[in-house]
Fold this sequence. Notes:
By secondary structure, the protein is an alpha/beta fold. Helix content is 29%, strand content 23%. Helix 3 packs parallel to helix 13, helix 8 packs parallel to helix 9 and helix 12 runs parallel beside helix 13. The longest helix is centred in the first third of the chain and has 18 residues. The chain is globular and about 65 Å long. It starts with a helix and ends with a strand. Ligand G2I binds next to loops.
Amino acid sequence: MNHRRALRAAVTIAVTGALAAAMTMTLTSTASAGTTLRASAAEKGRYFGAAVATGKLSTSAYTTILNREFNSVVAENEMKWDATEPQQGRFSYTGGDRLVSHAQANGMSVRGHALLWHQQEPGWAQGMSGSALRSAMINHVTQVATHFRGKIYAWDVVNEAFADGGGGGRRDSNLQRTGNDWIEAAFRAARAADPGAKLCYNDYNTDGINAKSTGIYNMVRDFKSRGVPIDCVGFQSHLGTSLAGDYQANLQRFADLGVDVQITELDVMTGGNQANIFGAVTRACMNVSRCTGITTWGVRDCDSWRGSDNALLFDCNGNKKAAYTSVLNALNAGPAIPTTPPPTDPPPTTPPPTDPPPTTPPPGTAGCSASVSLNSWNGGFVATVKVTAGSAGTSGWNVGVTLASGASVTNTWSATASGSTGSVRFANVDYNGRLGAGQVTEFGFQGTGSGAGITPTCTAS
Ligand code: G2I
């Protein structure tokens, strides 16, 4: 792919009123005044991260800045497919493990990048197609996400699968040619392998409401409606000399679908607008309560893939640039992520009715059915349960299972579990209880021991 050319094409959007307004706005400082990016972001319930080339971790000028300013890291290359599975079935985790231990020793979370991407496929995979590639790709996702299980805050499960050029469709690749469902298959495999990691779709040229971001938006909306496990969308944000005025509105429309959003690879062309654009992106994230963090794609200008663009927050001598101050001020001025979700309904203004409850049951039978698919390994399993509403739909559902002796539930998603051994019940959560007639939703749980004999029964309300 010619990423640079696509990037240049994408950054010719004019400075809009919103950015211009943001540029002239005086930031009022609040009680919060962190003095490093990581402290300021953390005060607001967010992370501030950097892409790291692990080879540089032994350079003290680099690591001093990294450890002082950042509380999240992502491997610039070391967790990609060519690095982690250079030969089919032979896995290499040296660089990734090194980064994870550095993060753990320095109070940093880790973004995983990237399980599947049409670029940096190992040579053996580049030559594959069809069902052989599909199973190799699922095995890759399963193995790598299992290796790092419990250590990754969020995975870029699929990277850059949408095309540039205005159609809003998928990019052609050998992965795409295995079938349009390759992305959801990858997300399901990642969820089964590491149920605790947030699972993201990540892409570039999505810095505003445009055909490409809308194509991705439609995919995420479809995934959410069908219960495909997706938790977040990454906006790479490799930016030029201007920023789309609807940058924040675009983040917000994804957040409104019920996913987190993250700025995942931020860097900005040098020049007069650089500091302003860095500030505007940071403010946009702060203004979206589901924007959980920002990552810059490197530490110092000389670490950047963009070379002479001088696109980062520190110069080659490690000095803070104007863009750094702009980001820090925006972090300090921004609101914190609310710790309790705001009420979704206004409080009732009229007293509740005093009429006696009806004595006749509502018409129709609000039944449901449930089926399970199991992914088991020696000593554990992940169960994915499909709930299908009966002809009357549901306003809520409850699924019971009986676990084999010695088995226990350790983790549940998209449902609330009662009990963990023997008879365990799973109730819907607020967003997936109401189903239309015949509509399907999914939840899952992970367990230790054997998943044998799990037969779910569904009760609707
Ligand atoms: O292209 C910028 C980024 C766009 N989004 C996905 C990111 O994963 C991507 O990162 C860049 C890295 O910053 C580069 O460092 O991805 C490139 C690969 O497409 C990385 O470049 C590669 C070189 O092409 C290889 O020749 C080199 O062996 O880095 C490798 C390791 O240094």
